[in-house]
Amino acid sequence: MSKPNIACIKKKGLFRSLLLGILLAVGGGFTISALTTAAPSSDSTATEAATSQLSPSARSVDGTLASHGYDVDNEEEVNSAEFGITVSSSTITEQSQTFTTTFRSKVVAAFNNGARYRNVFLEVVDSSYTSSADVQSTADAQKVACEESGEAYEMPVYEAYVLNIVGRSSSKDIIIPEYVNYYPITVNGEDTFGCSLHVVGIRTEATLNWDTGEIDNSNIESISIPSSIEYVEEGAFVTTDESGNTYDILVEDSEEEVSYNEGWIDGWVDDTSKVTYGSTYDHESTRATPTSSGTSNYGDGVTFVIGDYLTLSEEDAATAGVDVNEYYQPLVLEYDIYNEDGTIESQGNLRELSLQTTNSYYDAVGSNALSLTLSMNIDFDLAEGTYIPGESLVFHNIYYYTRTTIGTVNYRIPDYSQSAMYCHPTLNYSDPVSLDSIFSQTPAGVSTFGSYTLISSVFDTNTEVYAELKPSSYRNYSSYIASGAYRIRTLLYSLNNASYRICYRGEGDEVKTVTYSVSTPRNYDQVEISDGETFGFLLTNAEIGPDFSADRLISFELVGFTVRMDLYNVDRNSIITNSNTSMRFASVCFLNTETDAHFDFSGLLTLTLTYIIYTVVFVGAAVGYYLYSKEKYKNDEFRRVDTKAYVKTSVKNYVGCGLVVSAILFIVLRWGFLNSSITTYNPLDLWVILTTIAAAIFIGITIKNTIGMIKEIRERREKARLKLDQDVVEDGTK
Asked: Is 714 exposed, middle or buried, given 0-12, 13-18 or 19+ CB atoms closer than 10 A?
């Protein structure tokens, strides 16, 4: 297994931050934190070499958990025909790692993809897919909404794997489709709702008979694999049965582009001599999306309890004759830690996983549970330079489901009459996706205004990684991308499900850590990020703590966030269907004030200094002009300066010009130094509006007075030119 890229996020843009800080010094002062190279280090002790520890079959589950108080002496491995755990992806940052995991009872709703391709059954593996009933209600509602708005309806697209390939005498050459449209119900000759399945992978033992587990390929001569296939599990194809029957595997891509040594799990076929790369389909119609003819159920619907979080009262425990904590057996994950020096820490790494269900004391999947699948994101905080190999994961405390009465309460509980079980998950990814392969960021600064704090970063994005994360879409649309018709977007996605984690020094120098949800307006939970763009996170100090202020900040992290990449049609302003790929990350640190270079900018300080400078300049100019005019016109009886009127006019002009200066300053602060990239509200919005309106009124009055004054001067000059006053006796009243 190759080691993922876990390089630190680069600290770029220091010169840019320093230059910007110098410019800000005129308005309000700044500080530069020292840039250090300090980094967290792992205190783990290396044990054996990585190669000897990564094989699940070589591991022993006895003893490791028992030393931590978990009874695993009688644990048995779960029956893989009844239950399975799939890890669909793993992502990693310099400080964390995430596993996206699905627990599944082997009752599989397999889509039979139409008459032409009735040999192939598909299993939906998309985490956003729940059930066909939900697809029905959701798609129907979306179609009605599109009809009302006049927009074109597009069916939702879900990723699917080939679950089973059945050989039939009527069809010896099997073609795996790229897409399958599924229409559950047709009303009055029209499809009212549906979904499209995008075939991206092939399950293990795809050509075995599901019930007997025997090779079932006697009627198969060839299987064609399209370019959309990105993952093929180990043991997917068995090409020879007892009678010696074999079949050809025709892979559409060339071996250089897609190979089982790269994108596919090693050992996906037992006879590579029967594999032909670079194959092409006979005609374009084979790529058409056939309409599904229905679904089939695989498996017998066994229900499993995934961890038991029930703690009995002493009274109920005494009535049942059990220990008070006998039923508290939470789901536990055992794992290894891969150190940067190539060694593995494999002893005592345990994680008690949280209960996912909010209205019960256990998680469950199966025919007697609410769902056949359960998705879970498992986040780890790790020392820099380390990561967890997916092959080392072992889940413990899995039970069969039963019911019992304890005291006067009927419980659905694990069946403790049978042994607890453990499970090694199936990995549907090759290497973890590193965040810094998608983007890195440089801390730009901390801006404050009143009770608000803005933390800014400058992004460096890498759109080229899209070709690796979504190879099928990139190959299909590479010409459009090259021409600029399509552009690759990178977004912070599903921010409503993310959190901020702020560490600061409270009263008495106590270090505090606060985590709270990201607040975003309705329907605004995604933000596009671009290369070189400054991104701002706006925080309300009161939400963090009564003793929080920007000068007490230690670090700021974004937790549980998703990065999405997709293709965007520039001319049509629309997303290309099924071009998106999403990756969830545990956490990333956007600023550590003790190690990251940044400047601190205070909006209030800037306002104060600006008003002081403005006042000094205005008063100086007003006093200077007063003294000049008083001296110049001291002998002019009609233009002599009236001190009281001059002061009154100066005060009015001071306030009016101050409004203009304030409007300009608030606009600069709003869009330059306190610009939040997530929320539409900004604390400076009200000030911008008020000062802009007031400044506009003042400017309007000034323009009106100026026009009147110019007109009066012109009339006076015209009278003088025509000598209209030469016969008028000067009596001092004019």
From this structure: exposed
